């Protein structure tokens, strides 16, 4: 295995509430950054990187090999030693392209959680792009320039257009330095023909996005990733560019690679051994990008996804959670009755407060209270498609939409809740949910179902029934005197709900 690189020796971290950690389980390498918050600014105190090469460990069936699996877990055990004293809320760990696609990703994530001591969240390509831009933007001086940010990963490449800290366009493509190297340069052999074929394929993948990116426009192009940094260093040291990365400089590098016949045979100043296995694939992607987008020069950023994770985590803790913005946007897009949604959310919050200690509704890595609130606010989005099967439409939209800030596991939780908001109860929707949350899903579902039933009349009044729980699954719902008599539809709905709840082990009494 490639030796790990670190800016400091691996020692137990000092317990400190101002420390934050971000871990990026990439397709080529695993990265970790530890930073300290000082007056709203982040100061890096440690970094650690290991070339795990998960993507290279995928077999033909899309399964992580035993070797890649074990090396990934061993790496996370070392990461875990560094972060064991950092507050859990200050630690974020995410998996990207390979863990999105590996057929045994679920098994890997179970063991990874034990090794690291924290859950690993799988993020979609669009969310990966958003976090990359956030990280890069925080490493740049304040400017009115429109930026194109590009990041080459092991299995995907992201393109983002943005201004200051806000992005206006996110694109994730299925090409990465590992995947392109594996597909076009078998056994590391490099020829003019297979290099041209690789560049052509990358141009073909990028072409559907070319028009949108060009129309958005940019004043400066910035590259963020180990591959782009490596190419930038090589071009500069070998005097193939005066400043930044240029197309002509990369063509000179490609000539040297073709002349050498393989990256292993290449003797070139600035080329690190850890980059040799994937350099040619990354170079093909970068050359294709310069041609398709007509880029003259690209600057290199030292920040990337992991820095974006740190700043995003800090924002969540300071009530600047982008997920709230995403939920608001989805409500507006699907023309949700927000007053009704808020009424359901208020009642669900009241029921949660009365039950969360009894049912132990807590899970590391997941804010279940907020997820329940967002499920309430999104439970009717499917009505805009059709009232018939609206809960199924709602679940599909939540699961499939790119909602900034949400990882795949959080969207699965939301989707499962909204599909079970009423009617037949489906335990099948819980199958892919994280094991730390799965046993709690029936309880969260009950709270949502009761809140939805209570507000079916859409009168928006504040309703705070008393919820008493006896022996875990015996529920007593107490309303103010005569309230149920004055709301006969609600009484009928709750009596109907009692029959549904009985089928999955709960007994409901109305008082």
Automatic annotation (TrEMBL):
Q: Provide the family line.
A: Belongs to the GppA/Ppx family.
Indicate the quaternary assembly.
Homodimer.
Domain Ppx/GppA phosphatase C-terminal: start-end pairs? 322-497
- Name its co-factor(s): Mg(2+)
Enzyme Commission number: 3.6.1.11
Q: Which UniProt keywords apply?
A: Cell membrane, Hydrolase, Membrane
- UniProt-recorded name of the protein: Exopolyphosphatase
The record gives the membrane topology as: Peripheral membrane protein
Q: Catalyzes what?
A: [phosphate](n) + H2O = [phosphate](n-1) + phosphate + H(+)
Keyword Hydrolase listed? The answer is yes
InterPro entries per UniProt: ATPase_NBD, Exopolyphosphatase, GppA/Ppx_hydrolase, Ppx_GppA_C, Ppx_GppA_N, PyroPPase_GppA_Ppx
**Major localisation:** membrane
SUPFAM superfamilies attached to this UniProt entry: Actin-like ATPase domain, HD-domain/PDEase-like
What does the UniProt entry say about where the protein is found? Cell membrane
Q: Which organism is it from?
A: Thiomicrorhabdus immobilis
| Phylogenetic classification of the source organism | Bacteria, Pseudomonadati, Pseudomonadota, Gammaproteobacteria, Thiotrichales
Domain Ppx/GppA phosphatase N-terminal, by residue range, is: 33-315
């Amino acid at each position: 295995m490639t030796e790990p690189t670190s800016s400091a020796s691996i020692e137990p971290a000092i317990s400190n509430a101002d420390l934050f950690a971000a871990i990026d389980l990439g397709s080529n390498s695993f990265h970790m950054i530890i930073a300290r918050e000082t007056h709203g600014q982040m100061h890096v105190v440690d970094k650690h990187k290991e070339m795990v090469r998960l993507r290279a460990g995928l077999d033909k069936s899309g399964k992580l090999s035993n070797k890649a699996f074990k090396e990934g877990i061993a790496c996370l055990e070392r990461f875990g030693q560094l972060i064991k004293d950092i507050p859990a809320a200050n630690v974020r760990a995410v998996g990207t392209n390979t863990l999105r696609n590996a057929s045994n990703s679920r098994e890997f994530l179970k063991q990874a959680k034990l090794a690291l001591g924290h859950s690993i969240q799988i993020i979609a390509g669009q969310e990966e792009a958003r976090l990359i831009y956030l990280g890069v933007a925080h490493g740049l001086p304040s400017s009115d320039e429109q930026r194109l940010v590009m990041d080459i990963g092991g299995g995907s490449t992201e393109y983002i257009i943005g201004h200051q800290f806000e992005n206006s366009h996110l694109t994730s493509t299925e090409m990465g330095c590992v995947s392109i190297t594996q597909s076009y340069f078998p056994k590391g052999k490099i020829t003019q023909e297979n290099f041209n074929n690789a560049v052509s394929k990358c141009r073909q993948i990028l072409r559907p996005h070319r028009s949108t990116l060009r129309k958005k426009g940019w004043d400066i192009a910035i590259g963020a990733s180990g591959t782009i940094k490596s190419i930038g260093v090589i071009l500069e040291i070998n005097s193939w560019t005066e400043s930044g990365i240029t197309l002509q400089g990369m063509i000179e590098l490609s000539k040297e690679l073709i002349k050498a016949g393989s990256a292993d045979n290449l003797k070139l100043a600035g080329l690190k051994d850890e980059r040799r296995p994937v350099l040619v694939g990354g170079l093909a992607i970068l050359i294709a990008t310069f041609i398709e987008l007509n880029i003259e020069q690209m600057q290199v950023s030292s920040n990337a996804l992991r820095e974006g994770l740190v700043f995003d985590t800090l924002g969540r803790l300071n009530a600047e959670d982008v997920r709230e913005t995403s939920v608001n946007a989805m409500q507006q897009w699907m023309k949700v009755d927000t007053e009704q949604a808020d009424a359901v959310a208020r009642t669900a919050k009241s029921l949660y407060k009365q039950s969360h200690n009894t049912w132990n509704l807590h899970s590391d890595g997941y804010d279940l209270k907020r997820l329940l609130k967002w499920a309430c606010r999104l439970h009717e989005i499917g009505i805009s498609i059709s009232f018939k099967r609206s809960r199924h439409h709602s679940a599909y939209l939540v699961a499939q939409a790119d909602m900034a800030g949400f990882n795949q596991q959080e969207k699965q939780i939301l989707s499962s809740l909204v599909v079970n908001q009423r009617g037949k109860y489906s335990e099948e929707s819980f199958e892919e949910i994280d094991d730390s949350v799965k046993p709690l899903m029936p309880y969260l579902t009950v709270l949502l179902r009761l809140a939805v039933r209570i507000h079916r009349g859409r009168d928006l009044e504040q309703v705070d029934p008393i919820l008493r729980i006896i022996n875990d699954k015996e529920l007593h719902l107490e309303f103010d005197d005569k309230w149920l008599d004055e709301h006969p539809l609600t009484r009928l709905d709750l009596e109907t709900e009692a029959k549904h709840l009985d089928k999955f082990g709960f007994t409901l009494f109305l008082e």
